[in-house]
């Protein structure tokens, strides 16, 4: 048992001492086991061979690094009984066997790796041994080679010096031969047109001939060469002035002339003059395309022509000028910039003229592609000629065209809105002309709203092409900020919404109902359209705009609440004007019916007058019309006898004494006094009170205007007995039908009471009709 405790690994004998060399075996195996666990990704505590909980310095910890078998055995003898000691031995034997099994499993599983590692190490030993032998042989060979090289150099030293001298003499003779043959070479090159070769020959010999010109032979060669060079320069100038070749050939001529020593300032002027001629020819070709005949090509072809012709030529000229006349310094650069600025402004003017012809088109795709190519083409000259400002000018043109397109789309939206209103007018007039039913107001409203919204979406999609990622100018600050916020959102969308409200409000200033007046149904439709915009459409449109055009500009924009308030105010004005117009129509009928009748000599009433029936019919039609677009609204509680009340001069208790049987000549003064006292205590009726967005409020306003007009017309007339009775019958008939249209039936009662009372005050013989007779006549009517 003690031996088992003292020998945790296999191979330990029962008498082994922990101080001996064999005591290191279990410790080494535990460390190896921990390293294998670490290799296979186990925890650090397991890799170290101990749990993380116990003290690492505990000598009684079997898995610890400081395990002492003697201390452990002493502890077991002191603390454990015999049964527990035997259990511990059994458990320890089991653990030892498990550890041996684990070790064997690890060895078997990694056998191939061990074999491969062993072979690799053996091969590396062999390879290094061979390499050392080869390095030794290489060092020996290098020493031999060095020795041979030293001996050869010493042997050939004298011969090398002689060979060097002979080579120098040979090179000098070749140079002299080249100098003596130079005139003939130059002549042959000039005859063959090999001007570049001739200039290179002259350049190689110029310094030598200049240095030895004091010698007669060299002076003669120099004179001959100068004559030939002068003839060469004359031919190059002639070729340059002819201008038949392209820019590269002319640049080559200038380069050769500069190499021959011609004055750079003069060549610079001539070069720009010839370049101007070619570029002006390109401009004339572009200008000819803008003429009335033949028809101008589309804007994309025009920009392609200008980009490949003028812009490409300008790039070639700028590149050649900077390469040839770089020595001119800032003065030469400014001269080139002024040259490019002048011709570029003329090119830009032609481009703007052609772009102006596209303002009438509704499609932006071709225009944006043309602007994209125009802007891309000017990148190269803009980089070459930064001082000329060509790229900035091109960007300004693109921005100006974008702003003009926004204005064009705004005009298109306004025209579409006016066209929708024209269609509504025609639809409203068509049933009256053809005598058949047309589309309802709700359908017309839906058509107008959908038409406007579709036009707005189409305009947004069209102008969104200016901010597409593949467009070269879309990353400019203007198109990432101001174009989106102030251009699209404010100028186009907000501007159209305000324009629509202003156009709608202009119908409130139309003349009377005759002639070219606005149909009341159109006023009602527009008021509902503006109210719908206030409730939902404006917020939807602006949200759609902000999503499509990610605004990166901090400039202030119009809040949604402001636009909604403007739209609501427009709807309120339109609805108020609708009430006034419809009230005026009914008032005109009532006024004419009162003014054109002789109320003193009228016959005893037997029927309700036709105009009153017409008033009820028109009011009913208005009620149906308003109900198509607006909700019902809130009414006050109605009394049960609203339709049974009979108007008479005795309908008010305060008026009963006015027409009592004891009527005397002094009664009129008392009657006026009582009437005035009654008005003081009666509720004041505001005829033109604000109209709410519901059917009841609209009908209440129209009926108030109509009955107030009837009251004022009655006050201007004098009535006989039967005239008073006719008014009594008419008012009772109106009361039978009008009370159901208003918010408060007492309002109708008060106004009709006023009408009958006013007629009675203006009647010399105020004898009312019996209420039962009035009811019979009205029911029969």
Task: Briefly summarize what is shown.
With 781 residues, the chain is mainly alpha-helical. 73% of the residues lie in helices and 0% in strands. It folds into four domains: 80-193, no CATH class; 203-387; 404-427 and 439-557; 582-631 and 686-778, Methane Monooxygenase Hydroxylase, Chain G, domain 1 (Up-down Bundle), CATH 1.20.58.
How do the strands and helices of this protein lay out in sequence?
Blueprint: H1 2-6, H2 24-39, H3 44-47, H4 69-79, H5 82-109, H6 111-192, H7 195-211, H8 216-242, H9 247-259, H10 264-289, H11 299-324, H12 329-356, H13 365-377, H14 379-384, H15 390-434, H16 441-463, H17 477-506, H18 520-548, H19 560-595, H20 610-627, H21 653-656, H22 667-681, H23 695-715, H24 721-738, H25 745-761, H26 771-780
Helix pairs in contact: 6-7, 6-8, 7-8, 8-9, 9-10, 9-11, 10-11, 10-12, 11-12, 11-13, 12-15, 15-16, 15-17, 16-18, 17-18, 17-19, 18-19, 19-20, 19-23, 20-23, 20-24, 23-25, 24-25, 24-26
């Amino acid at each position: 048992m003690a031996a088992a405790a003292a020998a945790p690994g296999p191979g330990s004998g029962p008498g082994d001492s922990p101080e001996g060399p064999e005591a290191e075996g279990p410790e080494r195996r535990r460390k190896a086991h921990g390293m294998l666990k670490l290799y296979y990704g186990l925890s650090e505590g397991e890799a170290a061979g101990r749990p993380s909980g116990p003290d690492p310095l505990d000598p009684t910890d079997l898995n610890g690094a400081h395990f002492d078998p003697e201390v452990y055995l002493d502890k077991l003898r002191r603390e454990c009984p015999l049964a527990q000691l035997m259990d511990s031995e059994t458990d320890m034997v089991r653990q030892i066997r498990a550890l041996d099994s684990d070790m064997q499993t690890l060895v078997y599983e990694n056998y191939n790796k061990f074999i491969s590692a062993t072979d690799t190490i053996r091969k590396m030993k062999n390879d290094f041994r061979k390499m050392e032998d080869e390095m030794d042989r290489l060092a020996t060979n290098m020493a031999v080679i060095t020795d041979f090289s030293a001996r050869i150099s010493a042997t050939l030293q004298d011969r090398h010096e002689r060979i060097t001298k002979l080579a120098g003499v040979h090179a000098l003779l070749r140079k002299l031969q080249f100098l003596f043959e130079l005139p003939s070479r130059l002549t042959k090159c000039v005859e063959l047109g090999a001007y570049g070769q001739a200039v290179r020959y002259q350049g190689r010999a110029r310094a030598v001939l200049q240095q030895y010109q004091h010698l007669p032979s060299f002076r003669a060669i120099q004179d001959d060469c100068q004559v030939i060079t002068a003839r060469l320069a004359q031919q190059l100038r002639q070729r340059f002035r002819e201008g038949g070749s392209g820019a590269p050939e002319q640049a080559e001529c200038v380069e050769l002339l500069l190499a021959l020593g011609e004055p750079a300032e003069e060549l610079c002027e001539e070069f720009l003059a010839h370049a101007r001629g070619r570029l002006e020819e390109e401009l004339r070709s572009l200008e000819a395309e803008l003429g009335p005949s033949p028809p101008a090509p589309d804007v994309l072809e025009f920009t392609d022509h200008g980009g490949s012709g003028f812009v490409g030529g300008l790039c070639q000229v700028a590149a050649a000028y900077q390469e040839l006349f770089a020595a001119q310094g800032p003065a030469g650069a400014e001269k080139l910039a002024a040259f490019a600025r002048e011709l570029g402004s003329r090119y830009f003017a032609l481009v703007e003229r052609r772009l102006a012809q596209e303002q009438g088109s509704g499609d932006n795709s071709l225009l944006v592609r043309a602007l994209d190519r125009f802007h891309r083409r000017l990148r190269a000259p803009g980089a070459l000629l930064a001082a000329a400002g060509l790229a900035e000018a091109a960007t300004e043109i693109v921005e100006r065209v974008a702003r003009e397109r926004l204005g064009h789309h705004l005009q298109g939206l306004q025209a579409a809105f006016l066209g929708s209103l024209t269609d509504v007018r025609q639809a409203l007039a068509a049933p009256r002309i053809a005598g058949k039913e047309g589309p309802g107001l709700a359908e017309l409203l839906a058509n107008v709203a959908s038409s406007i919204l579709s036009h707005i979406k189409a305009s947004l999609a069209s102008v969104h092409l200016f901010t597409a990622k593949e467009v070269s100018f879309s990353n400019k600050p203007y198109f990432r900020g101001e174009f989106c916020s102030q251009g699209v959102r404010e100028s186009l969308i907000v501007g159209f919404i305000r324009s629509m409200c202003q156009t709608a409000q202009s119908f409130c200033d139309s003349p009377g109902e005759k002639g070219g007046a606005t149909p009341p149904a159109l006023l009602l439709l527009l008021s509902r359209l503006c109210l719908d915009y206030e409730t939902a459409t404006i917020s939807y449109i602006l949200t759609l705009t902000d999503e499509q055009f990610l605004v990166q500009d901090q400039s202030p924009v119009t809040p949604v609440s402001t636009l909604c308030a403007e739209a609501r105010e427009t709807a309120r004005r339109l609805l108020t004007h609708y009430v006034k117009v419809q009230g005026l129509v009914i008032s005109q009928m009532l006024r004419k019916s009162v003014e054109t009748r002789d109320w003193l000599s009228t016959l005893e009433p037997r029927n309700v007058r036709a105009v009153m029936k017409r008033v009820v019919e028109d009011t009913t039609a208005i009620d149906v019309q308003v109900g198509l677009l607006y909700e019902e609204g809130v009414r006050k509680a109605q009394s049960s006898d609203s339709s049974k009340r009979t108007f008479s001069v005795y309908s008010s208790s305060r008026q009963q004494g006015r027409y009592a049987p004891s009527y005397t000549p002094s009664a009129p003064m008392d009657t006026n006094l009582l009437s005035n006292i009654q008005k003081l205590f009666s509720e004041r009726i505001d005829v033109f009170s604000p109209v709410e967005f519901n059917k009841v409020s609209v009908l209440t306003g129209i009926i108030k205007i109509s009955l107030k007009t009837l009251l004022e017309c009655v006050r201007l007339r004098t009535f006989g007995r039967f005239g008073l009775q006719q008014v009594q019958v008419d008012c009772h008939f109106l009361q039978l039908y009008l009370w159901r249209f208003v918010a408060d039936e007492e309002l109708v009662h008060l106004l009709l009471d006023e009408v009958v009372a006013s007629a009675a005050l203006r009647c010399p013989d105020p004898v009312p009709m019996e209420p039962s007779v009035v009811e019979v006549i009205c029911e029969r009517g």
